[in-house]
Amino acid sequence: MSTSLPHDSSKLDNIIPFLAEKLDLNPSQMAIERFEGGFSNLTFEIKTDQGNYVMRRPPFGLKISKAHDMVREYRILEGLEKAGYSKIPKPILCCEDESIIGAPFFIMEKVDGLILRNKLPEGKPLSKEFFSKLSRNSIDVLLELHQLELSKSGLDQLGKPEGYVERQVSGWSERYFNSQTEDIPEMSAISEWLKMNLPSAQNIGFIHNDFKYDNLVLGGPEDPRIRAVLDWEMATVGDPLMDLGTTLAYWAEEGDPEILKMFNLSYPSGNFTKAEVIAYYASKSNLDLEHILFYYIFGVFKVGVIAQQIYKRFQMGFARDPRFSALIHVVKACGKTAWNSIQTNTI
């Protein structure tokens, strides 16, 4: 048995006998390692002589929102499985007993493949054709999610679509001001602009809410097919265009601020531009994209708020990852980027 864990690892050691009993595994042939990367919930690989699993648990420290609700994320995977959606890791078990590791957690299968982080993988050159196909494949998957059947599968029980857009604008604005550490005029102004420019039309669909390349498991460096979508903690039923807006916010292009390229490897040659993402989505959806600027602005604002929340946790000592110290610059870049789009009426 071996572990490679962050602080509070004594609690995580308890997972070995727990899983040995629940999954009929040999505890002497188990090891736990944390996956590096990511800015939110913590993910660990559990290696066993009968195959490997993945464990998800909330971050240490402050409980920020339902985004860290492990039971809910597990139920989402179960609902997607019931709906016949295959691009997910199979959910294995969920534990709400916080005495085991200090927080609720769940176990799912490990899907092997290539996950693109914020840098090109060493020794694995990716071609322009690879990124072109990946761009198309990823938007196809996003469209597939947005068009899932909701009632028979029970997915409609995961959210309240009525008034979703207004609640999101209000909620993310409140989160920003609750976590604010310094005055960033653009972020305050964007919050007000969003409240004043709510679209009148409402769309309903299943949405991922954090859809970007590093949440996709690909076939390999020569195979841009998507084997699985990961990190379902913010998934719900709401307006699909809010989901598209968040994806566009993460969809960095070559000319975007360098610090905003840390979230998505969408800027190398061959990838769709933001305009091409919008055009491709529109060609395969019956939704009206007339107000796509609003949804994009919201997406950029939300990315800024997420960065602000994590930065505050870092300042308070609840998050120790040194990467988090730079996140205030992400907040500022999001503010400037979104405010410039508002002033120029362009994406």
TrEMBL record:
GO MF annotation, one: protein kinase activity
Domain Aminoglycoside phosphotransferase: from-to ranges: 32-267
Protein name stated in the entry: Aminoglycoside phosphotransferase domain-containing protein
Record InterPro entries: ACAD10-like, ACAD10_11_N, Aminoglycoside_PTrfase, Kinase-like_dom_sf, Ser/Thr_kinase_AS
